[in-house]
Amino acid sequence: MPSHPRSPLLITTGEPAGIGPELVLMLAAQGRLPDRTLAVGDPDMLRQRAALLALDVEVVEAAPEEGVASSKGRLVVSPVWLEAPVSPGVLNPANARYVLNTLQVAVDACLQGRAAAMVTAPLHKGVIIEGGFANFTGHTEWLRDACGVDEVVMVLATDKALHAQARSWNGSGDLRVALVTTHLPLRDVADAITYERVQRVSRLLVEDLKRQFGIAEPRIAVCGLNPHAGEDGHLGREELEIITPALNALRAEGLAIQGPLPADTLFTPRHLAGVDAVLAMYHDQGLAVLKYAGFGQAANITLGLPLVRTSVDHGTALDLAGRGVADPSSLAVALNLACRLADQRAQSVHSGN
């Protein structure tokens, strides 16, 4: 069921011992939340964190369908209750289920048309696994399974590159980086890179750059897996046997895809000129460069879902939690992006595209 374009935007507050709850509170105190925003989390925990940080924020409980939204000094919360008490900076595996419950509430509201989009504050993968969810690997994969889709694409982008039709390289380091594989141990990456997966991820990336970013003919540059993109098979054969054949078939279909190119030279102005996104083979290959270029001013987008989901570009920062020194900039970028994407998606549904 499609949501109304002015349906609420939901923020899950993430790991309760981390900085997620206070980032949401900071934006509420500063009046920087979009006017249709609701948080999803434990209201009492948020009240306690606001008091600890001396933030003048009233926490109000309401469900998404009630039409009550946050404003400056006022945070509206769709309640999900903690499983155990929490202290800033101190992880408790007993709250693993709580974190996943906040995600489920947001997903259900989006799929049922009661919310326009969801934004996620950081969670802690390790404590969720320790809390009894051994197969958990991250937001991206959990959302894929919760929404019942076969493939999603994880994309991070710096702020300026998030705007529709912005080219990825404009001389200031603005980038969009997508990943073929996401949260895998490095020793498992090569086995996960298949001809079919490279093609599926590439097609999803191109499709959503058109649909969500308004880029008519997306241009993609693809990293190789191995040093020097395998150097003609002398440093690995994945490029010769998997990646290049997959990209050649996509090029034959008319997709504007370059590569595979050596990752250590692809992220330079000459190769990035006129490129709309870089497709990296694994997590740190692409995201280390992206975060160097714009850490704290970037957002994470999950493509391929039947809903809009964005997130911050950082983790739980347990060492900063409860101190009031965390920077909410990435959350603000993710929220503003979610609003734009939700509006674009609603317009696309309305126009029948």
What does this structure look like?
The protein has 353 residues and is an alpha/beta fold. It folds into two domains: 1-149 and 305-353, Isopropylmalate Dehydrogenase, CATH 3.40.718; 151-304, Isopropylmalate Dehydrogenase, CATH 3.40.718. The chain has helices at 20-30, 43-52, 96-111, 125-130, 139-147, 186-192, 195-213, 238-252, 263-266, 269-272, 283-294, 329-351; strands at 9-12, 37-41, 58-61, 74-79, 117-120, 153-158, 176-179, 219-223, 256-261, 277-280, 298-303, 309-311. Strands 3-4-2-1-5-12-11-6-7-10-8-9 form a twelve-stranded mixed β-sheet, sandwiched between helices. β8, α8 and β9 (256-261) form a beta-alpha-beta unit. α7 (195-213) packs across α8 (238-252).
How many strand segments?
Answer: 12
The major pleated sheet works out as: 12 strands, mixed
SS field, number of helical segments: 12
Question: What is the alpha-carbon Rg in Å?
Answer: 20 Å
Short overview:
The chain has 353 residues and is of the alpha/beta class. Helices cover 39% and strands 16% of the residues. The protein starts with 8 loop residues before the first strand and ends with a helix.
